[in-house]
Amino acid sequence: MKDQVEALKWIKNNIASFGGDPNSVTVQGYSAGGFSVILHMISPMSRGLFHKAVAMSGSPLGPYPTERNQLNLAKKQAGLVGCPNETISEMVACLKSVPYEKLGNSLSQFYEFGSDPILIWYPVIEEDFGQQRYLTEHPMRSIINGNFQNVPLITGQTEFEFGYKAYYVLGNSTLTLELNNDFGNIAPIAFTLGRSTEHNRRISEALKKFYFNNEPITWSKFENLSNIYADSVIGFGVNRAAKLISQTSDKPVYYYEFSYKGQYSHFRKPKTNETIGAVHHDDLIYLFYIEPIFPLFGKDSPKEVEMVSKLTAIYANFASSGNPIPSNNPEFKGVQWEPYSTKKNNYLDIGHKLTEKTNLYESRYKEWEKLYPLSEYTD
């Protein structure tokens, strides 16, 4: 996170030399990058370095653990790449010398259930040793107390997010059996609840009752398993960010769901090769040319070209004006996207049409609100 702060400082100090405006900087991130964007709004180190924010499919305000150190992970990482971990100084010195490819290739060895946990490393609340601290308190507490940088924000998610992982679990008899036989210990790993503590096991029991009615998890429960993956890893955290930030910020928050089902996707059904709809990262297909995974859209993909035109216009207009909907663009005739409010629970559905709707998965997110009440962060 601190290296990102240095990059933002460089932009502020140098962007004018490239024709940019240092007083109109937009920070945008996806997934872990969306996580980062919200944290930059919170961190005292990032204040004044940007003026608008876009957090796509990522937020630190979900059920994820926030700790004061991750020494256990650091020691495991050291062991995986052949570094000593008896003393911190020796471990750090060795890790600094390890090529990034070797570090990246070791991450799969952190998995404990299939390819879970999805999230391994988290930002920490730093102890005060006289240094600049990126996070000084729990991010939730900062947001609740209004202790963050008020800037216009776009945030949202895709329709299915990580729900596609249900195919991999149910398609693997070993994982399915393990999930059913040891749900209390597996759920915290699979659904980003943190370590398997007694507290998290109780939450796991409540989630099993809510999503599965305490019944065996089989293919008949595919949609339920897909929903809990989507809600736990991305959806609830993003929804909570939209709600809390809109309540304490004097700047607009624009909330969306990307539901456009095109002919391209990062996930296809293993047996039929069909797409299921917009999964995690699928909206990026229409913002950036992702070579060599997807082609450069042309005349043979008119619907994709149309979505590229709309989505790029939304983010470009937001970056330049703070308003996501261009006023004089015929593609957006009749489109309304009002800032989010908890009274309306409104959001923009970005599908084959752009439609403002309300109450996105509200009954599901209310269950998470009960399990992770705000009082835990205010007492």
Automatic annotation (TrEMBL):
EC numbers for this chain: 3.1.1.-
GO MF entry, a single one: carboxylic ester hydrolase activity
UniProt keywords, alphabetically: Disulfide bond, Glycoprotein, Hydrolase, Serine esterase
Domain annotation Carboxylesterase type B: ranges: 1-368
Domain of life: Eukaryota
Family matches, as InterPro entries: AB_hydrolase_fold, CarbesteraseB, Carboxylesterase_B_AS
Enzyme superclass (EC): hydrolase
Gene3D superfamilies tied to this protein: alpha/beta hydrolase
Family that this chain belongs to: Belongs to the type-B carboxylesterase/lipase family.
Protein name as catalogued: Carboxylic ester hydrolase
